[in-house]
């Protein structure tokens, strides 16, 4: 009987946990997750959006059995001006299938689902890689606590600020500030009386946009606001809001009461192919997308599934196959994300007028929707 392939996964985020869940019942492999923190953070209640490309993968590991009260299936994306004037809406159901529906939920709900079915000894905490060496097609991993491991594959999924990537490639990798900041908050449905509480609402302003959507059946709404900003200093958030969002619509003030989570948005330079043939980068460690296509989590799940299928199928040069396909997919989504970022933040009145006119036409054009969104959301 052939020896099982041993796989080390660095990082217990969505990408790493998805791969672990896919691997756990495969007799060809054994795996271990190494996490630098002392636990998996399940306190974060902010929302994520999952299109059918990732739902089809998650359903393989029982996501369709998740309590229905903990997720939501929005049927439409409603476009609004900053003054709450509705422009048009996009029917999201045309991108769904019977078992794969566009889904919104809390990130913590998804992470908890992925983690809960793993054996407790599948994750080892307080682990940071110090050095990687290769010998006889095996990777020898040396940790800062002087422990070590020998594996067939190393999967790096420790995020956009991945220190592991710099250690593995012996080169410093730093993400770029994207020229925008994100503000997040969870609000209640009664706070958004201007909008349809069952849909995703996209509010477009000058150099800023807001997105609102339900994350469960408990009347909780995720609010995310993206504001263009030349530097990454987020210290005086009230001043930033006064000069941007509230200046355009004072009524938006009600969404930003109480504590806010604020951080600068960073992006990747370009996808990196490892110098080691048995090292894979997945999730934000491979490439971090702008948030304007809502594909961060879905692409992390997709990448995990691609690596899983290549490893268990004993493909020749799986890393090369993975990189070529993931780079092509990344380029497609990145171009659309950047175009959306531009479109959502138009400040010129004439350009806004034409954008809104064109939007009204495009959201009813099924050929356009299947091309622009279908190539991303359907898999």
Short description:
The chain contains eleven helices and 18 strands. With 379 residues, the chain is of the alpha/beta class. The strands form four sheets. The chain has a seven-stranded mixed β-sheet, covered by helices on one side.
> What's the end-to-end separation, in Å?
35 Å
Q: Tell me, what's the shape?
A: globular
Largest sheet: number of strands, sense, barrel closure: 7 strands, mixed
N-to-C order of helices and strands: EHEEHEEEEHEEEEEHEEEEHHEEHHHHH
User: Which strand-content bin applies to the residues?
Assistant: 25-35%
Oligomer: single chain
Biggest β-sheet: strands ordered side by side in the sheet: 6-5-14-15-16-13-17
Quick one: how many beta strands?
18
Mean of pLDDT: 93
Q: How many distinct helices? A: 11
Assign a percent range to the helix content.
25-40%
| Contiguous runs where pLDDT drops below 50 for at least 5 residues | none
Structure classification: alpha/beta
Radius of gyration based on Cα positions: 21 Å
């Amino acid at each position: 009987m052939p020896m099982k392939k041993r796989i080390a996964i660095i990082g217990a985020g969505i990408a790493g946990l998805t791969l672990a869940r896919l691997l756990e019942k495969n007799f060809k492999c054994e795996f271990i997750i190494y996490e630098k923190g002392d636990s998996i953070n399940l306190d974060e209640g902010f929302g994520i959006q999952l299109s059918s490309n990732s739902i089809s993968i998650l359903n393989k590991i029982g996501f369709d059995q998740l309590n229905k009260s903990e997720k939501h299936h929005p049927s439409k994306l409603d476009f609004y001006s900053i003054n709450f004037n509705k422009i048009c809406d996009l029917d999201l159901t045309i991108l769904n299938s019977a078992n794969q529906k566009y889904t919104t939920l809390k990130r913590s709900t998804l992470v908890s689902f992925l983690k809960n079915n793993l054996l407790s000894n599948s994750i080892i905490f307080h682990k940071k890689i110090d050095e990687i060496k290769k010998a006889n097609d095996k990777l020898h991993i040396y940790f800062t606590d002087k422990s070590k491991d020998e594996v067939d594959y190393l999967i790096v999924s420790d995020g956009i600020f991945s220190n592991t990537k710099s250690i593995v490639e012996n080169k410093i990798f730093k993400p770029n500030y994207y020229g925008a900041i994100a503000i997040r908050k969870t609000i209640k449905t009664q706070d958004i009386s201007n909008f349809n509480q069952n849909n995703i609402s996209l509010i477009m302003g000058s150099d800023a946009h807001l997105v609102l959507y339900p994350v469960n059946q408990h009347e909780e709404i995720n609010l995310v606001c993206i504001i263009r900003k030349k530097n990454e200093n987020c210290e005086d958030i009230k001043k930033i809001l006064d000069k941007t969002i509230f200046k355009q619509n004072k009524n938006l003030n009600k969404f930003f009461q109480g504590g806010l989570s604020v951080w600068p948005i960073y992006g990747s330079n370009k996808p990196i192919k490892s110098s080691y043939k048995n090292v894979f980068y997945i999730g934000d460690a491979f490439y971090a997308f702008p948030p304007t296509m809502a594909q961060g989590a879905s692409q992390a799940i997709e990448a995990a599934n691609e690596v899983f299928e290549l490893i268990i199928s004993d493909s020749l040069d799986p890393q090369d196959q993975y990189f070529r396909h993931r780079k092509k997919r990344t380029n497609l989504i990145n171009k659309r994300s950047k175009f959306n970022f531009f479109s959502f933040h138009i400040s010129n009145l004439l350009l806004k007028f034409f954008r809104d006119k064109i939007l009204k036409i495009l959201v009813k054009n099924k050929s356009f929707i299947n091309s622009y969104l279908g190539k991303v959301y359907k898999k």
